[in-house]
Write a structure and sequence with these properties.
2 domains, Rossmann fold, four-stranded parallel sheet, alpha/beta
Length: about 350
């Protein structure tokens, strides 16, 4: 398929070994039980009328740390041995994973050092520091965060808690979908944001492995479409550092572990224009009184803007995070009023 298309949809895929299974998601649910919130599912009649379909919002914006990331971080951290806990952990993140690792580390009494971009929204930086982590910044336009993150961990023997490309992390992220499907068992599909791919990998694994399989779709920023391009090419493709309002979606290349899962288990991934992201964010705020960050609005934008197949009339929408920087609101309002 050509790169001009707005989405990638699954075709014939060959069998391959995948990093996580449905049973791994079930195990992660047991591992994190009592340590994360069971977030509510919210509906809005007015938004349904605008979208032309029934939407069920899984509110991970109300999760501990303001995002779904606490699920994966807790799932990973709870597997550490006593010796690994003494060595401490390292992580790299644009914000939400950083907060999640800091929270999980503090609860275990583990020292955490986290690599974050210099342009990370201030609320995320301040919250991560407040949870007790040490922050090291880098320039995302010039430096490779994965290389820097590995070096940060190796220099002092810390355990690296990756934001996406880790089986325990991916399995933990899938627990949000387990809850959603228990609360709303008759969905036609589930849609989740795509940044590094860990959330959609967990979502698709949880949605496809249960007694009543449900298709899982992804929503990726059109200006940061490394995953769609990679799926179209049939191999991982790296893009230049992307510029998108959805800072959590600024991945440059899919993960080595997440990519095969998305190839096999995701029903499709759509590219979401910048203006549609802003419109969905403002609509959720004004109509449903839900505060979400731009990345958290990606899946809602895909459903509201008609980017998903029209026959999907009952859709579970994962609102991945709510750590919105208030200073960005005027720009988001202006963006929402612009063209696509």
């Amino acid at each position: 398929m050509g790169g001009h298309l707005s989405c990638w949809q699954i075709g014939g895929m060959t069998a391959e070994s995948l990093a996580i299974s449905y049973d791994d998601v079930l195990s992660a649910r047991d591992r994190i039980a009592g340590r994360v919130y069971r977030t509510p599912v919210v509906t809005s009649r007015l938004i349904d009328e605008i979208a032309g379909r029934s939407l069920f919002f899984k509110c991970e914006n109300l999760q501990r740390g303001g995002a779904f990331k606490i699920r994966g971080a807790t799932s990973k951290m709870r597997t550490l041995t006593e010796e690994e806990r003494r060595r401490g952990v390292a992580a790299f993140s644009s914000g939400n994973h950083a907060q999640a690792v800091a929270i999980a580390a503090a609860e275990l009494g583990v020292d955490a050092k986290i690599l974050m971009p210099e342009d990370t929204p201030r609320p995320k930086l301040e919250a991560t520091r407040a949870y007790g982590a040490t922050i090291v910044t880098y320039d995302r336009q010039k430096e490779d965060r994965e290389e820097l993150g590995r070096k940060l961990a190796e220099d002092v023997g810390r355990v690296l808690v990756a934001p996406n490309d880790d089986p325990f992390v991916m399995a933990g992220q899938g627990t949000a979908t387990l809850e959603l499907l228990e609360d709303v068992p008759d969905l036609a599909a589930v849609v989740a944001p795509v940044g590094g791919g860990g959330l959609l990998a967990g979502t698709a694994t949880a949605a496809s492995g249960g007694p009543l399989p449900v298709p899982a779709w992804g929503a990726e920023p059109a200006q940061a479409d490394d995953t769609v391009r990679s799926l179209e090419a049939g191999e991982r493709v790296r893009i230049p550092p992307p510029d998108t309002v959805a800072d959590g979606g600024r991945a440059e290349i899919p993960g080595t572990l997440t990519f095969p899962i998305l190839r096999r288990r995701a029903a499709g991934i759509v590219r979401v224009p910048e203006a549609a992201i802003a419109r969905a964010l403002l609509l959720l705020f004004t109509r449903a009184k839900l505060v979400v960050e731009p990345t958290g609005a990606l899946s809602a934008a895909a459903a509201i803007a008609g980017l998903l197949p029209r026959d999907l009339q009952r859709v579970g929408v994962i609102l991945s995070g709510g750590n919105l920087d208030p200073s960005r609101i005027p720009d988001l309002v202006a963006l929402a009023g612009s063209g696509d």
